């Protein structure tokens, strides 16, 4: 059985703020605890069993689909431009063969996504993983870098690099589909032994998200304050983000997973499975 308190992950970037607004503003019950971190850390914690429910990178879900179940209607997605997942580069995309591309440690989806794009275009850069939070170290040391999350929104990448390629836009031009960066999951073993508790937490997440969309001005204001950037930029960003998971997004996710299989990033076909919210157990 689970302990008295259930621990739930929370993405520390502003992109998940609309989903957590209600929980941050009075909806959080005392038996539930939130653990904020970057996606890559949440990925690890859910696999280690330190947290039971969490948003994680979509690619990481694909890599661990046997142990995890998706929660319906929750994601961080875009339909075209996204602003917070960019490739800052000195060269045009197709000129990056043999050039150094730095990947952030913070997200599995964005890195897999970029590798997939290069693979499809027959571009073979030299990858390295490292710090992308300091624009100076990136400009000095590499030819291009994948920048994600709040860092993409706050630092002047456009001023320092010849190209800032928005990966959401690029995917949309290639497929005409949305792109799903993060999904909310529950550990399968936890869901099987605590279906009613998971349903309760799921309902809280949906109520929290609904409250976020009802209080978008407050979400924008708090996010702008946190990142010390203009509200106008934050509002533009939230206008491009979607936190639902409709059939089209599920289809797009399946397509992304298939192409990860083709490249050998995934070793088996992903069986996309959802937690059954109509549990009558």
Topology:
Blueprint: E1 6-11, H1 17-27, E2 32-37, H2 39-48, E3 53-57, H3 58-63, E4 68-78, E5 85-89, E6 100-103, H4 108-120, E7 126-129, H5 135-141, E8 144-148, H6 150-154, H7 157-160, E9 163-166, H8 167-175, E10 179-187, H9 188-193, H10 195-214, H11 216-227, H12 231-240, E11 241-242, H13 247-262
Parallel strand pairs: 1-2, 6-7, 6-8
Antiparallel strand pairs: 3-10, 4-10, 4-11, 5-8, 5-9
Descriptive key words:
D-Maltodextrin-Binding Protein, domain 2, 281 residues, 5-stranded mixed beta sheet
- The helical percent reads 40-55%
Q: In terms of per-residue confidence, which ranges show pLDDT below 50 for 5 or more consecutive residues? A: none
CATH topology of the largest domain: D-Maltodextrin-Binding Protein, domain 2
Tally of discrete structural domains: 2
| Main beta-sheet annotation | 5 strands, mixed
| β-sheet strand percentage | 15-25%
What's the β-strand tally? Answer: 11
Please state the overall shape, judged from the principal axes of the Cα atoms. Answer: globular
Structural overview:
The protein has 281 residues and is α/β, with parallel strands linked by helices. The protein has 2 domains: 6-79 and 178-262, 3-Layer(aba) Sandwich (D-Maltodextrin-Binding Protein, domain 2); 85-175, Periplasmic binding protein-like II (D-Maltodextrin-Binding Protein, domain 2). Helix content is 46%, strand content 22%. The chain is built from 13 helices and 11 strands. The protein has helices at residues 17-27, 39-48, 58-63, 108-120, 135-141, 150-154, 157-160, 167-175, 188-193, 195-214, 216-227, 231-240, 247-262, and strands at residues 6-11, 32-37, 53-57, 68-78, 85-89, 100-103, 126-129, 144-148, 163-166, 179-187, 241-242. A 5-stranded mixed β-sheet has the order 7-6-8-5-9. Strands 3-10-4-11 form a 4-stranded antiparallel β-sheet. Strand 6 (100-103), helix 4 and strand 7 (126-129) form a beta-alpha-beta unit. Helix 1 (17-27) crosses helix 10 and helix 11 crosses helix 12 (231-240). The longest helix has 20 residues, at 195-214. The protein is globular and about 55 Å long. The two termini are 16 Å apart. 44% of the residues are buried. The mean pLDDT is 92.
